[in-house]
Design goal:
The complex is a heterodimer.
Chain A: H1 2-11, H2 13-32, H3 39-64, H4 72-86, E1 94-100, E2 103-110, H5 113-141, H6 146-164, H7 174-180, H8 184-191, H9 194-197, H10 210-227, H11 230-240, H12 242-247, H13 252-278, H14 285-301, H15 313-332, H16 340-355
Chain B: E1 12-21, E2 24-34, E3 39-43, H1 50-57, E4 65-70, E5 73-75, H2 80-85, E6 88-91, H3 103-107, E7 114-115, E8 118-119, H4 121-135, H5 151-163, E9 169-173, H6 181-196, E10 200-204, H7 208-214, E11 217-222, E12 225-231, H8 237-245, E13 264-273, E14 277-285, E15 289-293, H9 300-307, E16 315-320, E17 323-325, H10 330-335, E18 338-341, H11 345-349, H12 356-361, E19 369-370, E20 373-374, H13 376-390, H14 406-418, E21 424-428, H15 436-451, E22 455-459, H16 463-469, E23 472-477, E24 480-486, H17 492-499
Parallel strand pairs in B: 3-10, 3-11, 6-9, 9-10, 15-22, 15-23, 18-21, 21-22
Antiparallel strand pairs in B: 1-2, 1-4, 4-5, 7-8, 11-12, 13-14, 13-16, 16-17, 19-20, 23-24
Classes of the chains: A mainly alpha, B alpha/beta.
Chain lengths: ~375, ~525
């Protein structure tokens, strides 16, 4: 039994390192913060972490199958722009129309109210998954390397976002914004459940930020089942040894498409939240690029090998949190924001170096190049 | 040929199977059959067609012509999983395991036990434990990643994976080559059990004593043809070796000059590495071509890599012209005058998309540079001389090397190293997949280089070639040099006998067959 635990720790050393690193950094942060260990700080941090954590999860799945997805930031941005039309919550609904080459095309009215908001959320997430599915098909059937395929499709998704929102704007239902970006207590109060969040049994959990709850729910309800499915297993197998996976009769093409589709779904979750949090849609190209690069950094810090085959989305969540906590530090220590990338780079290098130690044990140096 | 009469209807029957790879014959009109409840050994030299036969049965490659019947009905397998579904399971020499997944994952990879549609990790683990226990290797923890297991344990997992597929026809292709002798006994017991249950077993092994101990029947292949099938005890080991060699017309080789005892250029003493090289000692003199023989995978390639500075943790002594050297990288090996024509010319020998010219000068850029800049005139001159010397057939030196034929590509690899003026040339099976004409040019070139004073260590899987080219041949078995053959001893019979380690005269022979 102890043996098994030792094996599991050794196999997940990247994840363990990321969790420890985050725990230490976050503890120090709260100690240094004037209002440390309070629900308010936690809520603020949760809101700042959520979108990147989702993108880190998104990036993990294709990386496990040994392919990078450069479009996750673009998918996030595009879904955010969709959300800024569909989640207005206006009682009478929102009239939608397209303007192409000076032609007005009416698309009818998207329903408002609670039903409309729920439908809008579903449409937004489906859009993200569809974008990922397209990526997967281009990679598998177009036989194009993932990095270049997603570079191209990412540009297309940004194009769609710009078409939808040439300038930042739109509107998100205020109650939705309030309910999802605060604590569970505020969530209950907005929805008028559990005595507006004042029920005595509810008090012990009322301080927990909603984004954290969402993060845990998505990880438990989407990632964990996927990892334990045959398709999820096939994703790991493809990243580990595609030839052996083929020889074992695994569905390698479906596995790759599933990996990119899931990436699109997770990126869509991130875009949806970002739109709700900012109450608008914004086709921000630099932001999309920064999120994509940070998602790759998070994946690596979280212990997933860029060569594929080993790692997990849970590790990437912690990787994202480590990256974010570093930026929190700059805020409280009042260090020039211009220095931030430099320190982030140093931390990234240090984290990656731990993973590279295995190279020292290789006995046939030719294996380093395979 | 008088084949043994079948004692029961055959389970698997192949009729008229032929297969060519890029025009090279691998199998030609092969008829073959095996029965349930029998262990059937398949024997032959390297390149006799055994691997192709197995790949066809297991659905990895499709035959060009011929039919296959299994259990009374015609079959043709488009993929390995189709073969598995029909009960044909193969344990391949190159392991088909995923290094980053756990033992339990790997064993159940094709059809894991499921609960509510998801993989049931606990059931999967129990299954792995059960299967490993069936072989008698409970010491493998199913949680371990394949990459963290030693080769012998990985092979055990490969066997457990095959068992888990409930085979009707089980093929073992050198499946015990990496096992410890204790594990081999366990695998024998398992095979005996499967045999009693009526499973048909095809057993490919180069270890004659294994074949004698296990097989009920054996078939010998040579040059892509099925030569003979006989029951246990009907043929002596000497007969079998003769069947494997056959009487083929030898290729033309350059004449070997008579020579005294030249002073050694390369002296190797007690070289060991990672359990795969065991106290190797060998001397090669100026002008000598020394062959490395033996079955594939007995440490020959590791020896070449160790000399070329690729391996870490090598112990022992290497002396070049009296000076002890310890190359830690190919660059260091190059600087003491060692060159290596590597195993895989497409990945280790050449940069395929780069031009012929770039590939030719890549190892000798120092010699044709002035400071940091390459001297273009000297470069062009060197390239011209190399192409002329090796008679490389090219369009223009600027063409991508990928456009050349295999033989000419290999010439480019060799020419690249000749430009560094090496004193020691290591050759790793340089004539594999090369046409006969180019082969003869390479033989002539090797002799020419030796005559100019180079020391050549030449590994080949082709015994005929070793006999024709080499002054001396060192036979390796299990990481050791078991015998050095020269002069009149240098015959195919002796090479095969030593390679199979069945020569009673060989000191320290393990498991000599006719004790």
């Amino acid at each position: 039994m102890l043996d098994d635990i030792a094996i599991r720790i050794r196999q997940n050393i990247g994840l363990v390192t990321a969790v420890l690193l985050f725990s230490i950094l976050y503890l120090l942060y709260n100690l240094a913060h004037p209002k440390g260990f309070s629900s308010a700080v936690l809520v603020q941090n949760g809101d700042e972490i959520f979108a990147l954590a989702m993108l880190a999860m998104a990036q993990t799945v294709p990386v496990l199958a040994s392919g990078l997805d450069l479009s996750v930031g673009a998918v996030m941005t595009m879904v955010g722009c969709f959300a800024s039309y569909l989640l207005t919550g206006v009682a009478g609904g929102t009239p939608l129309h397209l303007e192409i080459f000076g032609l007005h095309v009416g698309l009818g009215t998207f329903p408002g109210g609670v039903g409309g908001i729920l439908l809008g959320i579903v449409v937004c997430l489906a859009t993200g998954a569809l974008a990922g599915f397209v990526n997967g098909c281009v990679v598998v059937y177009g036989r194009i390397q993932p990095i270049i395929a997603t570079l191209a499709t990412g540009a297309i998704y940004i194009g769609i976002a710009l078409f939808l929102r040439p300038t930042p704007g739109g509107k998100i239902d205020e109650d939705l914004n309030w309910a999802l970006t605060n604590s569970l207590g505020d969530f209950a109060a907005t929805l008028h459940i559990f005595d507006d969040g004042a029920a005595s049994w509810f008090a012990p959990v009322a301080w927990i930020p909603v984004p954290f709850v969402l993060l845990v729910l998505i990880a438990l309800l989407v990632w964990v089942p996927f990892r334990r499915s045959v398709l999820g297993r096939a994703v790991y197998a493809v990243g580990s040894a595609e030839g052996a996976a083929y020889m074992s009769g695994l569905p390698i093409e479906r596995a790759k498409i599933a990996a990119f589709t899931l990436a699109g779904f997770f990126a869509g979750c991130g875009g949806l939240f970002l739109a709700i949090q900012t109450s608008s849609g914004n086709a921000d190209i630099p932001q999309a690029g920064a999120y994509t690069l940070n998602s790759i950094a998070s994946v690596v810090i979280g212990g997933t090998s860029l060569l594929g085959g080993t790692g997990s989305a849970i590790g990437s969540i912690f990787g994202a949190m480590v990256l974010r906590v570093i930026s929190f530090f700059f805020r409280i220590f009042d260090i020039a924001p211009l220095l931030q990338p430099l320190f982030e780079g140093l931390i990234l290098l240090a984290a990656v170096s731990i993973g590279a130690l295995g190279v020292l044990r290789v006995k046939n140096t030719l294996e380093l190049f395979r | 040929m008088p084949d043994a009469p079948p004692s029961q209807p055959a389970f698997l029957t192949l009729s008229g199977i032929s297969k060519r790879y890029a025009g090279v014959r691998a199998l030609e009109g092969v008829d073959f059959a095996c029965e349930r409840g029998k262990i059937h050994a398949v024997l032959g030299e390297n390149g006799a067609g055994k691997s192709t036969l197995i790949k066809i049965i297991a659905g990895v490659v499709q035959p060009d012509t011929g039919t296959m019947r299994l259990g009374g009905s015609d079959v043709s397998f488009a993929t390995p999983s189709a073969a598995n579904a029909a009960g044909v399971v193969c344990i391949f020499q190159e392991l088909s395991l995923m290094p980053d997944l756990s033992v339990a994952d790997n064993i159940s990879i094709a059809s894991p036990p499921r609960r509510f549609g998801l993989i049931d990790a606990r059931a999967q683990r129990r299954r792995a434990e059960q299967l490993l226990a069936e072989i008698g290797c409970e010491d493998v923890n199913p949680l371990m990643r394949m990459r963290d297991l030693p080769l012998s344990r990985r092979q055990v997992v490969e066997i457990a994976k095959a068992l888990g597929k409930k085979p009707q026809l089980l093929i073992l292709d050198e499946a015990t080559s990496a096992l410890t002798s204790a594990d081999v006994e366990k695998v024998y017991a398992m095979l005996a059990r499967l045999k009693a249950e009526g499973v048909a077993i095809l057993y490919i092994s180069h270890r004659m004593h294994e074949v004698e101990a296990l097989a009920d029947r054996a078939s010998v292949f040579r040059n892509g043809r099925h030569i003979e099938t006989f029951d246990k005890g009907r043929r002596s080991t000497a007969d079998i070796v003769q069947l494997m060699i056959g009487r083929d017309i030898a290729a033309q080789y350059p004449r070997k000059p008579a020579r005294g005892s030249p002073k050694p250029v390369l002296a190797i003493d007690h070289l060991s590495w990672d359990k795969r090289l065991d106290r190797i000692s060998l001397r090669i003199g100026a002008g000598e071509i020394v062959g490395l023989g033996g079955l594939d995978g007995q440490g020959q390639k590791s020896l070449l890599l160790a000399l070329f500075g690729v391996l870490r943790g090598v112990s022992g002594q290497v002396t070049v012209e009296g000076r002890e050297v310890r190359p830690g990288s190919p660059a260091a090996a190059k600087s003491v005058g060692i060159a290596l024509v590597p195993e895989d010319r497409k990945t280790e020998g050449l940069m395929l998309p780069m031009s012929i010219a770039d590939n030719l000068v890549i190892a000798s850029l120092d010699a044709i540079s002035r400071g940091p800049l390459v001297d273009r005139a000297r470069e062009a001159d060197a390239i011209k001389r190399a192409i002329a010397r090796l008679q490389i057939k090219i369009g223009a030196p600027g063409d991508a090397v990928a456009t050349l034929s295999g033989g000419n590509q290999q010439k480019v690899v060799l020419a690249k190293w000749l430009m560094t003026n090496p004193r020691i040339i290591l050759l790793n099976d340089p004539t594999r997949g090369i046409d006969v004409g180019t082969k003869q040019e390479l033989y002539r070139l090797m002799r020419e280089l030796a005559d100019q004073g180079a020391a050549i260590l030449f590994y080949s899987t082709d015994y005929d070639e070793l006999i024709g080219c080499c002054d001396r041949v060192a036979i390796m078995y299990d990481g050791r040099i078991v015998r050095e053959l020269q002069g009149d001893e240098l015959t195919e019979t002796n090479i095969i006998a030593s390679a199979l380690n069945i020569d009673a005269a060989t000191p320290g022979a393990v498991g000599a067959a006719h004790a």
